[in-house]
Design brief:
The chain is of the alpha/beta class. 25% of the residues lie in helices and 22% in strands. It folds into 2 domains: 273 residues, Phosphatidylinositol (PI) phosphodiesterase (TIM Barrel, Alpha-Beta Barrel), CATH 3.20.20; 30 residues, no CATH class. It is built from 10 helices and 19 strands.
């Protein structure tokens, strides 16, 4: 990152960093899948970043392109196909589900787990992720990119950008309070429309090319909650400008530890990365002996827990379950005993499981 000149240093622990798992955890698991979100939750992410497109039957589908990407997806009957050959906006969701977008080897991310998986619906992904968060006793936010361009709209790969934006907002508001999500797009028509129609929503201005900070706000026409540029285009002056305007700066997509540290030294408010497993490497160095990282903060390893390598930095002993930042003794129903894993229970002989109790076998 030779373009970054470190004019000033800010201690990493002086402000909360918004660590965002890009497409969930693209470096570790097939992108934009429910599994990718759950994989990211193994680490101290504070936001899950993902992309959405629209199917022919107007369903909000989690995916990066409005067409099947042959680099990561396979057709059930054809080994090879061309980019843009399968237009998702011309396919019902049932047809989209026939494609496997997880078991093909992805050359750019060789450490990805390989699983057979289709593109999920946004609502289903949120439901599944929220259920997992409840189990973990955690709460994270969602940063949802509306994948819109004037070119794709003209070529029939998406609906009108206003229709598309409304479909996405409705799905999100049906599932989450507005403070739990932000909406981002490289298509600033989308952002301008959302700002006018839903001014209370948190909007993120994505940008790839280099542009003067003053020009960004002038072209956008309003002040967004977050400015999210390609990380190599950042410099100390632009970070200072946006923060002086009350705009957070969260660059994408940063995939090496040295570059993460340089950006944190610039004073960015967050980082989007394909490798959320790197977060602990950076932040754990601030933890004292007997502490581990939990949701970006160093806390003491709780009673009835043992240290562990992955977030939250410990594992509860047998007979105890994690409840946020402590271990709580499991309450067993009558006629039940702990399973061998020490985390679940089974009914004694002569009894069978019925909901959360053990019922005498017939």
């Amino acid at each position: 990152m030779s373009s970054l000149i470190l004019f000033f240093l800010i201690p990493l622990s002086s402000f909360a960093i918004d660590w965002q798992g890009h497409r969930g955890a693209r470096g570790l698991y097939p992108e934009n899948t429910i599994g990718a979100m759950k994989e990211a939750l193994k680490y101290p992410v504070t936001t899950l970043e993902l992309d959405v497109v629209i199917s022919q039957d107007n369903k909000v589908v989690v995916g990066h392109e409005p067409w099947m990407n042959p680099e990561i997806c396979t057709h059930p009957k054809r080994k090879d196909f061309k980019p843009r050959e399968f237009n998702l906006y011309k396919m019902d969701y049932e047809e989209i589900l026939l494609f496997d977008c997880g078991s093909k080897k992805y050359q750019r991310f060789p450490n990805q787990q390989k699983v057979v998986v289709g593109k999920p619906l946004l609502g289903v992904l949120i439901d599944e992720t929220e259920a997992r968060l409840k189990e973990l006793g955690r709460k994270v936010n969602y940063n949802v990119e509306i994948k819109s361009t004037p070119e794709d709209e003209k070529r029939g790969f998406q609906p009108d950008y206003k229709v598309m934006s409304d479909l996405v907002v409705k799905t999100l508001l049906d599932k989450l309070p507005p403070e739990r999500f932000s909406l981002q797009s490289f298509d600033w028509r989308v952002l301008k429309y959302l700002h006018t129609k839903n001014p209370s929503l948190s909007l993120v201005a994505l940008q790839e090319e280099s542009m003067e900070p003053e020009t960004v706000l002038k072209k956008l026409g309003f002040t967004p909650a977050v400015y999210s540029p390609y990380y190599k285009n950042l410099n100390p002056a632009s970070v200072e400008f946006f923060r002086s305007k009350g705009v957070k700066v969260i660059p994408w997509t940063v995939n090496t530890i040295p570059e993460m540290r340089e950006l944190l030294a610039l004073g960015v408010d967050g980082i989007i990365t394909d490798y959320p497993n790197f977060i602990e490497t950076i932040e754990k160095k601030n933890c004292q002996s007997g502490e581990n990282l939990f949701e970006g903060k160093c806390i003491k390893i709780p009673t009835h827990a043992l240290p562990a390598e992955h977030s939250p930095g410990w594992i509860c002993k047998k007979g105890y379950m994690q409840k946020r930042n402590h271990c709580e003794k499991m309450k067993l129903p009558s006629h039940a005993r702990l399973s061998d894993d020490g985390k679940t229970w089974v009914c004694e002989e002569g009894y069978e499981k019925y909901r959360s109790t053990c019922k005498k076998s017939k």
